[in-house]
Amino acid sequence: MSLHYIYPITNSRGLGKVIYFSGLMFPVVVTPSIFGEPILTAQPFYFLEQLEAVVRMEFKTESDLPPAKSRGHLEKIFEYVIDNYLFAYSKKHPSSKLTSKLTEFRFWEENPDDHYFKYDGRISECLVLDTLNDDSIIDCKDANHPSKEVWYDWCLFKNYASGIHEEYVTKLKEAMRHNVLVKTKDRSSLGTGEQNLPIIKTQSSPLTLDQVEMFECIRPVQKFPEKAKCLIHRGTESSSNFEVPVEAIATTSYYNPELLSYYFCALRDHSPLAQFRNFFNVVEFFFEDDSTSKERKQLEAVIRWVTTAEDLMRIIQSLPSAIITRIAQKRTASNGAVISALTLNAADIITEFSNRLYEIRCACVHSKQKRKGQKTLRFVPATSDEEIIWDELPMIQWLAAKCIEKQTSPSDSLNA
Predict the structure, then answer these.
(1) Which of 101, 150, 222, 409 meets the CB 3.0–4.6 Å disulfide criterion with 145?
(2) Which whole-number Å values give the CA distances from 280 to 18, 24, 163, 312, 403, in the listed order?
């Protein structure tokens, strides 16, 4: 019997597609999913734009699992492999914030010996008895189920709730089909005349609970066709089958787990100052001297080590024109101090960029009001300062990724 593992990820809401990763220790697949085992909170319809996602892993037997010293060690290996896959995805989609670093724990493990399991985000508990296969259950009945063989679902409440839910979905579908004939005169949005209008419209096709649960049938070991769409189904033709976009990403590179942690901590955080500091920590990892007077030169040396002037200009010029305009001008922080402009036609763009980046780094890290009696440049978690940092994030993220690519690790770096 195959072993299945599900791993939650952060910042995945609205992913709206299936991602198939391969090339490392084992393949994984990322799919939309429902959290919380909904029963009382089950919706009649769901939208891909609102669904979060999970990573799914599958192993044929226990011997196919990565060698690990303990359950906790195995989970670290899972996270490390997932991080390397998500890093490959982040490089391809820099605006993505997908990360395995959790901000909210949404899964829990039930004791199989218990007879009540938790549902609805652990708010409710349902009686769970395998009446058809558990020989220790002599009998189980109520007014609608005269013997234990009549229950078709081991979560006994589902034997009642499923029919009610399906009836609710059916009636809503019927209501959604209605159009109304509307006659207006000089109305601002409709003008004058008669129109046959749908009573409800949706931006995308709504999915039923049954359809969303079909994502559980997507397996990481299956081979996805070279198509832009993936058919979601249970193995048979059905009117409930539907398609979603699919993306396949292959990578064979493993990177330094500490640097990946800094990188994904930046993606996880909502504060642009915290994001900048974590991305800069990746770059600073390669500094070799603690002397403040030499940090500026070390930053420049690291940038020259990981990129070229041409590559740096290409990244800068790929930014939205509004951002390019702003970074090419002096900007004023909330305390009145001025941030240098980035001179795009500088004789040496790397020196120009590194000097300005170091200036911004110090303003993000230090909070001194004055230095030698003079007002210092510093950023505070205020809207005006955060707007300045937002414009800097694409470049420092790109630079952090280039640094990570320089620090590859063996595939067994977590097995030691």
Answers:
(1) 150
(2) 31, 27, 55, 16, 10
Instruction: Answer yes or no: is 68 within a domain.
Output: yes
Do 227 and 362 share a domain, yes or no? no
Secondary structure of 104-118 as H, E, C letters: CCCCCCCCCCCCEEE
Distance of CA 51 to the CA centre of its chain: 11
Residue type, 5: Y
288 & 337 share domain: yes
Task: Give one DSSP letter per residue of 161-202, joined into a string.
Answer: HHHHHHHHHHHHHHHHT-EEEEEEEEETTTEEEEEEEES---
Per-residue pLDDT tens digits for 75-89: 999 999 999 999 999
pTM of the model: 0.90
405-408 contacts, C-beta under 8 A, 24 or more apart:
405/253, 405/255, 405/306, 406/286, 406/305, 406/306, 407/255, 407/256, 407/259, 407/285, 408/253, 408/254, 408/255, 408/256
What are the tens digits of pLDDT across the range 356-388? 999 899 888 876 666 666 667 778 887 788 899
For residues 242-275, b (16+ Cβ closer than 10 Å) or e, as one string? Answer: bebebbbbebeebbbbebbbbbbbbbbbeebbbb
